[in-house]
Here is the input.
Amino acid sequence: MAASRMYLSISPHIRSKISTTSIMLDVIIALLPTTIAGCVIFGLRSLAVVTVCVLAAVASEFIFNLIMKKDQTIGDLSAVVTGLLLGLNLTASIPLWQAAVGSVFAIIIVKCIFGGLGCNVVNPAITARVFMLIAFTAVTSSASPTIVDTASGATPLDVLKGNDGSIPSILNLFLGIKGGAIGEVCIVALIIGGIYLIVRRVITWHIPVTFIATVFIFSFIFADFDFNSAIIFALSGGLFIGAIFMATDYVTSPSTPLGKIIFAFGAGFITVIIRFYAIYPEGVSFAILLMNIVNPYIETLTKRKIFGGREK
Amino acid sequence: MSFYLKGVHIPHFKNTTNLSAVKMTAPKYVSIPTSMHIGAPATPIVKVGDSVKTGTLIAEQNGYISSPVYSSISGTVTEISDMLLSNGKTAPIITIESDGEMSVDESISVPVVNNKEDLIAAIKKSGIVGLGGAGFPTYVKFDTDKPINELIINCAECEPYITSDSVTIVDRIDDIVYAIDILTKYIKIDKIIFGIEKNKQAAVNTIKTAFKDRSNVEIKTLPTLYPQGAEKVLIYHTTKKVVKIGELPIDIGCVVSNSSTIAEIGNYLKTGMPLIERCITVDGNIVKEPKNVIVPIGTPLEEVFEFCGGFTDEPKKVLYGGPMMGIAVPYLTVPVLKNTNAILAFNRTEAKVAKTTACIKCGGCVNACPFGINPVTATKALKTEDLDGLERSGVELCMSCGCCSFVCPAKRPIVQNNKIAKETLFELRKKEAKV
Here is the structure.
């Protein structure tokens, strides 16, 4: 028995199999159904948009790390998730250079200069979407499905806001046969992804369920207790992709169940207020962004009681 | 507050569950440290060249929180040197070469116990310390005027691999019954509670059968959730009482003792043989024949591994205790201690430490902590030496159970950080008290 050098690490000596990379991979897998659905509904141009976003995101993180002489972090796949999420939040008709600019903004401005993964204050994909909404006016919110004969690029929310167009049937709203961003339209695919994430314990039900329920309930109240309108509001726009994939971002959302519920309620309420009373037809991105900013306060208010701790 | 505290589900690897303990052949030599317990090291009373027998006192108790040390084999003292302890201090270690006889010291006799004082003196003399891992001198827990409402027998054994406690329960239930009879005869204890995880069915049945007529004995089967065997967790789960920060279990009427410790008390009261050997689980992914072995204290680990068929691969990490809280040892020649409940050996693949990446604020550590400590707050406060932040994080309560590090997807050294944060907190508090 040779007395060779032995490892002297501190306990625990076993770790769970879950890693940052495996979590990000799960998110990517969960986003695949809606990505495929988006490509089917809006045509292959969608694939080009999403691919450009992912490549631009990964490349900008790679180059940033290189220039700043930091350890390479693209292996954790978080840049892929950011790029993919941003791409799915854009319309298929957006100029590809604009999509690339959005990705670079998300990675460099929102994530890397704040210190990289885990240090960003707000969600990179959401913030980039809001940035593009302001910088490139309206390119994020209009597109028409290629698989149906409709010339109108208006989203159901545009129509509800008084623009010309017709509102699709509830079934079409579910399947995604409607105008909108690539990854936000197919509710069925988004729900499949959400269930996958909950089953894999990447996220809990608190944020998506509370967020969607809040939007539904307040839409119901604000739409003069019209059940049908409330359903249309809940199924339209970026609510599902936002509630399932963007609001559940670990870095910028609370970690306790109560905190999650408060966070999601706030986001849902702000969404409805914007949809009904502000100039923009859609408010999910703004709502999540605003709740990201107050997240540290929610965390402080809802922190777990310490067992046997001092009474303060 | 929910019924059970949080924790983590960890792999069990209990490969030795149904293997009764086998007695190891006498080792060629033993190295017995004088510090195998919490408190002051014992003072050696033998010299190099002295001949000793099994059960001979070789180092006497030094102060109130301390414990005497006995020879575990018969032979000659060949060396008394200083040993580096894990806390950086040194303590004498006594090496005894075996004469192969294992002859028993003539002075060994059954202790006479007629009252509480006799009983506590006997436990004190027996050299018994907490065998579950903590190594706290056992007599101190009973040497109290405070009322004992519950004596909780810790049979949780929540660490992976380890089965030595549950095997001891099955093999030596008579010793446990005897100890409890004597303890309850001379010390006023309202209730005895066995706290055991429900996956240890053989041990549960053994306890149930042995104590079926006792109204003051209760068996609580608990979910298999790590760290079920942590003192404060077990107290809460068996009695719903909360040990507050700064309090001892006895302050709320509880005494917690490991089942193997209780069995050892029974053995001492029956035979007068002090604590010189113990049951340990020998396992790990490269041990040829995992076993539960009764080992003389001070036996070098390599001899125990050899007794279990040796290794199938080069050992790269060897642990005292389980993988969640065990201590990695630098050499295979280190001895089995009083509080060693398992020795585990792993090869390079298992020993590798995962690369640490950035914290993604997933909250996994906070949600896994049984006590709700916030390691993220603690780490932040540690960087700026912010006493208030350290206090708020609750890190003072950290018992290093490892749930946080286990679940962390970024593989961060949270336990290590918490330990440093805790020490820093105490230092900052001292400084503040001076000002």
The longest strand of chain B covers residues 75-84.
